[in-house]
């Protein structure tokens, strides 16, 4: 068993134990989650990602040696820095997801008691889709390296349009293509079935709004993945880093939702910060051949990390200091005690 396989094994074991802990102790079925509980869960998942970063840092020399054997020279701590950069990239994009999640819950009138369970199922489905998407993407890049240039151009295009996006262009779950597709071949009912995903009406099975919301959450996350996964590939081409950074960020999305749902509407310029990062990574992917002539791979990763931290933190701070007109009213969390 080589070092990469050992890291995959450790990651799988730790993640399984963490999920059991989160589900068994930190979460209760059909119970509202307070800000304090959401903070504890967020710290738990972020702390777990930091612990994995430390583990990679310790295992860095062995991982670097293994990669050198495969003909790719890397520094001893390149992979952990890549993981940290990729995780921060995914984590910041997760914040951008939350506002869309709020729109979906409000549009279908989901009761707060069902938020946690619906989010969990939607996120677990999203992880499965992301693993499939990442596997296909990694295989495609491994066979056709020029695909990275397409990804780079796509990130520049996406970042440009994200930066110029109009605030009035708000996503409407009820008119989305995903919802219309579900309505076209599934019998849907306009209630939550008392917390069920499927009920029987007139002796026939029908799917509730909770089922629709779970599918929408997973599908919307996959749409966001079309930006985030190519962006991570612009930071690292190691499948280990791409898989782990994505899964850690997505698993922490549920607690982050409860923590930030009252404040996310204040982050008016976060989208612009993310857009700048996407454009930067896209340009870096297109010019990587020339950039490598005068900058080492480790330095490039460190540069990416610095740009991500600067743009995301700067956009959030700028949003807090300068409140934009037309900001939606803050969500009032009645569960705060």
Characterization of the model:
- It is a single chain.
- The protein is mainly alpha-helical and 337 residues long.
- 70% of the residues lie in helices and 2% in strands.
- It has helices spanning 3-26, 35-69, 78-107, 115-143, 147-163, 177-185, 209-233, 239-251, 253-260, 270-286, 288-291, 297-321, and strands at 198-201, 204-207.
- Strands 1-2 form a two-stranded antiparallel sheet.
- Helix 2 (35-69) packs antiparallel against helix 3, helix 2 (35-69) runs antiparallel to helix 8 (239-251) and helix 3 (78-107) crosses helix 9 (253-260).
- The protein starts with a helix and ends in a 16-residue tail after the last helix.
What's the helix and strand layout?
Layout: H1 3-26, H2 35-69, H3 78-107, H4 115-143, H5 147-163, H6 177-185, E1 198-201, E2 204-207, H7 209-233, H8 239-251, H9 253-260, H10 270-286, H11 288-291, H12 297-321
Antiparallel strand pairs: 1-2
Helix pairs in contact: 1-2, 2-3, 2-8, 2-9, 3-7, 3-8, 3-9, 3-10, 3-12, 4-7, 4-8, 5-7, 5-10, 10-12
Placed side by side, the strands forming the largest sheet appear as: 1-2
Describe the sheet with the most strands.
Answer: 2 strands, antiparallel
H/E element order: HHHHHHEEHHHHHH
Structural class: mainly alpha
Cα distance spanning the termini: 50 Å
Low-confidence stretches: 325-333
- Level of helix content? over 70%
What is the average of the pLDDT values? 79
The whole-angstrom Rg is: 21 Å
Number of helices: 12
Extended strand count: 2
Molecular shape: globular
What is the quaternary state of this protein? single chain
Percentage beta strand: under 5%
């Amino acid at each position: 068993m080589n070092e990469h396989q050992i890291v995959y094994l450790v990651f799988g074991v730790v993640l399984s134990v963490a999920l059991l802990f989160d589900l068994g102790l930190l979460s209760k079925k059909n119970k509202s989650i307070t800000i304090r509980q959401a903070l504890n869960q967020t710290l738990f998942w972020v702390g777990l990602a930091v612990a994995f970063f430390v583990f990679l840092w310790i295992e860095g020399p062995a991982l670097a040696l293994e990669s050198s054997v495969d003909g790719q020279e890397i520094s001893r701590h390149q992979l952990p820095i890549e993981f940290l950069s990729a995780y921060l990239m995914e984590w910041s994009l997760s914040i951008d997801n939350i506002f869309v999640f709020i729109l979906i819950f409000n549009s279908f009138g989901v009761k707060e008691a069902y938020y946690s369970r619906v989010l969990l199922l939607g996120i677990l489905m999203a992880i499965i889709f992301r693993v499939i998407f990442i596997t296909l993407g990694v295989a495609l890049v491994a066979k056709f390296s020029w695909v990275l240039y397409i990804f780079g151009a796509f990130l520049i295009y996406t970042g440009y349009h994200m930066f110029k996006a109009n605030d009035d262009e708000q996503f409407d779950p009820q008119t989305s293509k995903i919802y219309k597709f579900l309505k076209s071949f599934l019998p849907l009912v306009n209630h939550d079935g008392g917390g069920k995903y499927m009920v029987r009406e007139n002796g026939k099975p029908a799917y509730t709004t909770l089922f629709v919301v779970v599918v929408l959450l997973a599908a919307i996350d996959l749409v966001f993945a079309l930006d985030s996964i190519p962006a991570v590939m612009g930071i690292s081409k190691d499948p280990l880093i791409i898989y782990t950074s994505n899964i850690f960020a997505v698993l922490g999305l549920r607690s982050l939702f409860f923590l930030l749902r009252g404040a996310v509407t204040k982050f008016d310029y976060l989208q612009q910060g993310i857009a700048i990062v996407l454009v930067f990574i896209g340009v870096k992917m297109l010019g990587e051949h020339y950039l490598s002539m005068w900058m080492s791979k480790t330095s490039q990763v460190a540069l990416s990390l610095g740009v991500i931290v600067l743009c995301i933190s700067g956009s959030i701070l700028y949003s807090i200091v300068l409140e934009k007109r037309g900001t939606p009213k803050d969500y009032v969390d009645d569960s705060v005690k």
